[in-house]
């Protein structure tokens, strides 16, 4: 009888011991080395599991916003500014880390607010010619106040339907070559494009040297026959508008973009991601496109965007792209104006 009681007692102890171990495993917490993390763009850091329940379930890592931060077996890489939640999952058990990638901070280094009544020729040079801009454009570029002027705190570039030195249209184009240039940083312009089929306003930059080897950055282009679209593009020696292989981006709107002013922004960042440069284009704070340097481009020398570039503002009429669907002369019943409120350039702090 005593042996029977002892046996039952030992059996009960084993049962409670197993049950206790089971509960301990079930209640064991699931934790990471970081609950929050702040990384700069391009920076990488490893998140590790510090405690986990016993389970045969596979460990799965996910990011809820891979445009901000990616994760690979716990290795987190910051892609661009914003917030992302990195989650580790073991079956139904999950634990997360919130990753913040702060905005880059910039210092203003140059600006033209177009105050006063005349164009600042310490910054800008008029280009006066009827050569077609290399795109078979139909206008003659002048420096006349009828075509370009500063008024009411804005630069006005006005295209006109008129016979002038063998052309049927006039307009204007200005550049900052040898006066103002930029190598990396942030560029911002607030502008309002004209409406009308055949218009082709642009805000862009060129490198010093021969085209296309020296490079071209089209921060903003708009063609009037696509009234709800802004375009951006790069041109290099082997990938340019002549062969149609240049990288480009578009941002679509549900209204005509000529109806209001827009803020166009470019961030041009050195060694931003894995040691490679990147160029980001935004319209009204919404990203249009990221252009990225790659090992192939770096090795081939076909990434000229690591030197100084100067600014260009112009309003073309017609041309190989702007005039692809003809020129609607009835648009000149009203003033055809490209208005620029300001152009600003910044460098990283």
From TrEMBL:
InterPro entries: Beta-glucanase-like, Big_2, ConA-like_dom_sf, Glycosyl_Hydrlase_16, Invasin/intimin_cell_adhesion. Gene3D superfamilies: 2.60.120.200, 2.60.40.1080. Residues 99-349 form the GH16 domain. Belongs to the glycosyl hydrolase 16 family. The lineage of its organism: Bacteria, Pseudomonadati, Bacteroidota, Cytophagia, Cytophagales. This is Beta-glucanase (GH16 family). GO terms for biological process: carbohydrate metabolic process. It comes from Sediminitomix flava. One of its GO terms (molecular function) is hydrolase activity, hydrolyzing O-glycosyl compounds. Pfam families: Big_2 (PF02368), Glyco_hydro_16 (PF00722).
């Amino acid at each position: 009888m005593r042996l029977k009681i002892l046996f039952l007692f030992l059996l009960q102890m084993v049962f409670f011991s197993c049950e206790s171990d089971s509960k301990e495993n079930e209640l064991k917490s699931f934790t990471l080395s970081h609950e929050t993390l702040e990384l700069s763009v391009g920076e990488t850091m490893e998140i590790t599991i510090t405690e986990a329940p016993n389970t045969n379930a596979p460990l799965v890592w996910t990011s809820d916003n891979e445009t901000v931060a990616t994760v690979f077996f716990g290795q987190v890489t910051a892609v661009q500014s914003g917030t992302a939640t990195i989650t580790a999952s073991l079956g139904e058990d999950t634990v997360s880390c919130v990753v913040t990638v702060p905005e880059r901070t910039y210092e203003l280094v140059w600006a033209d607010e177009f105050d006063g009544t005349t164009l600042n020729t310490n910054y800008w040079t008029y280009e006066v010619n009827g050569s077609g801009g290399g795109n078979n454009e139909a206008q003659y570029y002048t420096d006349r106040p009828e075509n370009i002027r500063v008024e009411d705190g804005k630069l006005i570039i006005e295209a006109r339907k008129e016979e002038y030195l063998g052309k049927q249209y006039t307009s204007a184009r200005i550049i900052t070559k040898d006066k103002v240039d930029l190598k990396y940083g942030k560029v911002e312009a607030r502008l309002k494009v004209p409406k009308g089929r055949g218009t082709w306003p642009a805000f862009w930059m060129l490198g010093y040297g021969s085209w296309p080897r020296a490079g071209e950055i089209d921060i903003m282009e708009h063609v009037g026959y696509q009234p709800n679209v802004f375009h951006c593009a790069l041109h290099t020696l082997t990938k340019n508008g002549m062969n149609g292989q240049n990288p480009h981006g578009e941002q679509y709107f549900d209204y005509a973009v000529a109806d209001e002013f827009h803020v166009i922004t470019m961030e041009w960042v050195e060694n931003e991601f894995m040691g490679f440069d990147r160029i980001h284009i935004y319209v009204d704070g919404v990203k249009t496109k990221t252009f990225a340097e790659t090992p192939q481009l770096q090795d081939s020398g076909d990434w000229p965007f690591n030197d100084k570039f100067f600014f260009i503002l112009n309003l073309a009429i017609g041309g190989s792209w702007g005039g692809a669907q003809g020129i609607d002369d009835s648009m000149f019943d009203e003033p055809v104006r490209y208005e620029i409120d300001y152009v600003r350039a910044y460098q990283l702090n």
